[in-house]
C-alpha cells in the first residue's frame, strides 16, 4: 500500500468539540480512507503510551467493506494494518467498543450486502500498536 507523507485536508474529515458542538477540519497524513457510512470508530490505547483511532468496516459508495484502518494520533497518520485470520463478511451498521483491560476492540452485529443480520462476534487485537501496525482480526472465543 502506498503511503503519502504529504499532509492533506479532506472536507469530510473533522472532529467535533463536544462542548460547543463546532466541527473543525483535520489535516492527516497517509492513505486516507474513502467515504463510508455505517462504520465505527474506536479509540484504543497502544503499547508505550498514546492512543490510536480504529475505523472499522462500513458501506462505501459502491460496496460493503470488511477493512480496518488505524489513525495514529501522535502524528495524525492513517495506516492500513495487515489483517490476519479468517476474512469476515463485509458489513455495516455494526456495534463496536474498546475492551478496557485489553488492547482490543469487540465488534458485533451489522447487516451484510443483502440486508441480512450478521451475528458473528469479532475481536480486533490492536496489541501490536500503531507503530506497525499489525492487527489480528479473529473470531471472539470468550
Describe this structure in words.
By secondary structure, this protein is mostly beta strands. The chain has no helices and 11 strands. The protein has strands at residues 8-16, 23-30, 40-45, 51-59, 64-72, 77-79, 82-84, 95-99, 104-108, 122-125, 134-139. A hairpin with a 6-residue loop joins β1 and β2 (23-30). The model is unreliable at 1-11 and 130-134 (pLDDT under 50).
Question: How many strand units?
Answer: 11
Beta fraction: over 45%
Radius of gyration over C-alpha positions, nearest whole angstrom: 15 Å
Note the gap between the termini: 33 Å
Shape: globular
How are the strands of the largest sheet arranged? 1-2-6-5-4-3
Helix content: under 10%
- What structural class is derived from the secondary structure elements? mainly beta
What is the average per-residue confidence, as pLDDT, rounded to a whole number?
A: 79
Secondary structure tally, helices: 0
| Biggest beta sheet attributes | 6 strands, mixed
Order of helices and strands: EEEEEEEEEEE
Low-confidence stretches: 1-11, 130-134
Amino acid at each position: 500500500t502506498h503511503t503519502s507523507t504529504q499532509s492533506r485536508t479532506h472536507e469530510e474529515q473533522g472532529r467535533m468539540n463536544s462542548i460547543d458542538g463546532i466541527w473543525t477540519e483535520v489535516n492527516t497524513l497517509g492513505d486516507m480512507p474513502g467515504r463510508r457510512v455505517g462504520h465505527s470508530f474506536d479509540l484504543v490505547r497502544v503499547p508505550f503510551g498514546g492512543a490510536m483511532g480504529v475505523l472499522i468496516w462500513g458501506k462505501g459508495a459502491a460496496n460493503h467493506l470488511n477493512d480496518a484502518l488505524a489513525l495514529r494520533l501522535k502524528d495524525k497518520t492513517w495506516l492500513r494494518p495487515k489483517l490476519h485470520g479468517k476474512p469476515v463478511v463485509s458489513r455495516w451498521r455494526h456495534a463496536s467498543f474498546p475492551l478496557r483491560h485489553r488492547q482490543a476492540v469487540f465488534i458485533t452485529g451489522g447487516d451484510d450486502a443483502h440486508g441480512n443480520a450478521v451475528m458473528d462476534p469479532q475481536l480486533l487485537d490492536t496489541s501490536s500498536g500503531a507503530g506497525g501496525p499489525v492487527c489480528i482480526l479473529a473470531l471472539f472465543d470468550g
